[in-house]
Amino acid sequence: METKKYSSYAQIERELEILKIEKEISYQKLVYGVKKTKESFTPQNIVSDLIGTYSSAIPYGTIVSTALPFILNKAVPFVKNWLAKRKRGN
Length: 90
Hints:
Blueprint: H1 9-40, H2 43-54, H3 61-88
Helix pairs in contact: 2-3
């Protein structure tokens, strides 16, 4: 990395502003990446990815890999609500 030489404070300020903006862009990319990663770690996505990977080895794999995400989207909230009600004693 070569040493930069500045002839005025304005050049230094401009360079600092550019670095500040680049830092903010990098931070926002990181935040977005973490958000997308958290969204991908749902039970539905994990099971869907797993079934999709092994769909060729499963009998009727194409049908299973197509129907399973739909079933999970309906079943998981139902099971969560059922468990929550049982936990409360209803």
